[in-house]
């Protein structure tokens, strides 16, 4: 940018100050604000440099660098009636044409002719003069705020407008100029405010570029990423001093960052007696309920200390630590009480009480679901290579922990606590592991069950839910999926793929519908078809996220729609072949040609070709070449070595090229024509054993 251009630009700063913004909303708000501002400035014809966003619990701000002082002049074209209707039979200007000219503020003689796809029309070109950014920015600021994605908004006072939290101040300035912006009943100024406790006074922002530095003097770390990095570093240093390792997941770190403007990291502690509680319960209490950071000692076990962030620098940190310890102690005391009480009654003893817990209207109680799971788990056990008796026992007990005190207090621990109770009850290790893992994966970032029994029970549980809801007509539509059936389907697919299970989805669905019974499944064939189509959609999404092309996915799934592991092996081989083999594109085109020829023959081509009917050396050469490799190709296909099979098949290309160059496939003699089509059909069958090449779109 030249010095002259620099003089025609200034930095701009927009800030909206609020009551505490929810921590989980801050990053989406920050990113959306940049996107919306970029879009609106572009639509207004205002050039700018980088846009930097800041978000803290009390503010959302945008620093727009090198914003042009004036917008680009913009040309707009207004279209009028067709030229053919501009004059009547006597050559006089029609009322329609006169009216259009008048609406443009010009005479008919000033109008232009514009060629369109529907023929020439009358038109008027207008040049909108450049506008000052000072005049444009207030409206752009309002539109930016209005376009933010707010999951919930609130009203305050007597005003009709709303925002995520009550708005307390506004700031909008370009260079030295404070702009005239009004919103939420407030007038924008050139000041911000510091930390609520440490620096509640106004802070003058002399230049947009000095925003972050000025707030730092007011004890506010405005940059979310720098604040996040600061917190992670301080917690790691605190843990290192103890010889410990922090359990600091990215989501927890983001939430802590979103709760603090001036984070001070402190060390809290609790009574070691509470370490007897299962660590999952301790971690849940600390991380999800208190936003504390649990610590593991050198032996990998939790220690009776934790890290946390305070949103201020206290003169007496021990007072802050003591307060947090007291809050945590109350939560841990509840967990310890329920843990002790729950173990006085076994999972098996709780089973009859599940009759009183409704699973879903139309699908019965949790007890009814448990009975179905027992049958389905046993039926699926051979596919997962697990002991059927152990799996059936796990299915019998897996829902009993829903009646426990710990799960009642901490629902996110369902299944996990069941595994602990099963071990306490003396159940087999495989049974306890399956119970503890059968809800996995709960979300996209969760691990799949590590044990075979856990994998099988998790699949059974998700299949029963998915097929059951489809059977009673509770099917996801559009963005609505209130019963998380897409997540259940994706969980099943992830388990199958991660564990390399040879489980066909059509077989699994058939077994599940059978356990649901005719009382629930009124139209088995329609329900079956809908569920398998649903799985197909999930597979396409899953494989696209793995990086495969849509046409390759369709080509494979059209031939292997139900065995996920085999489908992925085919996809990997096909994608590598198309990307790396020099003959791949030409060979794919030849296969499409074969498919088209065979499709034109309305009756099915059956039987082996008869070498005695070959008339041209090219067809004999192709048949000889094919016969020499057919056995090896078949073996590779049987063993799932699709890459090796494709490499062999690619060697046919010279013979296929020569065949099409020299042989008229659709010969007039029906016997000769059918014999040549039979030869091509054998080649087609081998390629179709991997994928339908006709669905490939090319590179």
TrEMBL record:
Its EC number is 6.1.1.14. Keywords: Ligase. It is an enzyme of class 6 (ligase). This is Glycine--tRNA ligase subunit beta. It comes from Acidithiobacillus montserratensis. The gene is glyS.
